[in-house]
Amino acid sequence: MATETATKTYSKIQLLTLNGPEYRRVSTAPPRAPLANEIPLIDLGQIDGDLAARKEIAQNIRLAAENTGFFYVYNHGISPDLIRNALHQAQAFFDQPINAKEKVSRRKYENFQGYHGVGTTQINDTETKDNKETFSIRYDESNDPLHANSPTQPTSSSRSLDELWTGVSHLPGFRTATVEFWQQRLNLARKLVRILALALDLEESYFDDVITHPGADALYIHYPGVVDPSDSANVDVGIGSHTDIQCFTLLWQDNSGGLQVLSNEGEWIDAKPIEGTFVVNIADFLQRLSNNRFKSTVHRVYNRQTASRYSMPFFLGFNADSVCSVVPTCVDEEHPPLYEPISCGKWHHDRLALASLKKT
Ligand SMILES: O=C(O)CCC(=O)C(=O)O
Ligand SMILES: [Fe+2]
C-alpha cells in the first residue's frame, strides 16, 4: 500500500530585475488562507492622533513590512461613496466600445497614461499575457492640493493631458470622481509616508522633501471574466507574478477575490477582499532604501469567475528627481548599504524600460 507523504512540489518563477533575472521557488499547491500575521489588519483611525498614537500604528506597520510587506488598512478616512462612485466611473469607461477606449490610448501620452487594452501587457514573461485592461493617470501638480496656490504654467505634457480628459469628457462625472479619488489617496499616502518614517526609526518628517511632487499613479483595472471557470487548461493570469516598483501601493479591490501573495515559504496565499479596507504593499524602492528590512513581495491576480473583476491601485513613489540613499537607521557595521543612491524616477523608468525591451 502506498504511504502518503506530505511532499510538496514546487515550480520556479522568474522575475525581471535591474540586476538580471531572479528566481523564486513557488509551491504548486492551491492558494491557502493567510495566517493572521501574514496579512494583518491595521487600524488607521488614529493616524491624525498624537505622536504616541502614530507610533503605535508605525509599530504595527513595521511588523507587517518586515514580514510579508502586505497588510490591510481600515478606518483610512476615504469615503465609501467616493470609492463607489470611482468604481462606477471605471465600469462606465470599460463598458464602452473599443474604439472609444482607444481614443485615449496610452500610445498618445507620456508615461503610460491613458488606456491599455486587454493582452497588451505581460508583466511576467514566464507566464501568460495579462488578461486585463487599464486606464491610468500619473502625478499632475495642477491636481495636487498641496500646490493649490501655485498656478502651473501649461507645458506640452499638460496640453496632452487636456486631450486625455477631453477624450473621456462624454462620461458624466468621470474626471471629477477620478481626480478626487486620486487626491484623497495622495493625502492618505503622504500620511503613511510619515508613519513609515517612524517605522524605520527616522524623524517623522524625514521623507517630507521627497514627497512634494511624488510618483502618484492611479489605475482603474478591469479583468474580464473567463468563459468556463472549470476549464483548468485556461489559466491566463489577470496580472502575472511581480513586485511593485516604487515605494508602496494602496489597492482597492472588489469582492471577486483572485489576488495572491507569495508567502515567505513560497506558497501562494489569498489576499481576500475585506469590505472597507485597502490592501497596502511595500514596493521595491522602499525595500531598497530600507536595506532589505522592509519586504517587497511577489503577488499576482487570477480572475477565475465568469464575472468581471475590478480593482483600483494607487502607486506612491518619491519625487522623480530626488536621489535617495539607504536610510541611516538601516545601516551599521554588520549591515553595510547594499545599494547605491538613485532617484525613484530613474529606478521606475529603468524598470519599465527593462520590461518593454524584453518585448522588442
Ligand atoms: O488588481 C489587483 O488586485 C492587483 C494589481 C497589481 O498588483 C498591480 O497593478 O500592480
Ligand atoms: Fe502589483
Automatic annotation (TrEMBL):
Q: Where is this region: Disordered?
A: 139-161
* Lineage per the UniProt record: Eukaryota, Fungi, Dikarya, Ascomycota, Pezizomycotina
List, in alphabetical order, the Gene Ontology terms for molecular function in this entry.
Answer: metal ion binding; oxidoreductase activity
Query: What domain of life is recorded for the organism?
Result: Eukaryota
- What family does this belong to? Belongs to the iron/ascorbate-dependent oxidoreductase family.
Keyword check for Lyase, yes or no. Answer: no
Q: Which protein is depicted?
A: Clavaminate synthase-like protein
One GO-annotated biological process of the protein: small molecule biosynthetic process
- Name the InterPro entries on file: DIOX_N (IPR026992), IPNS-like_FE2OG_OXY (IPR044861), IPNS-like_sf (IPR027443), Oxoglu/Fe-dep_dioxygenase_dom (IPR005123)
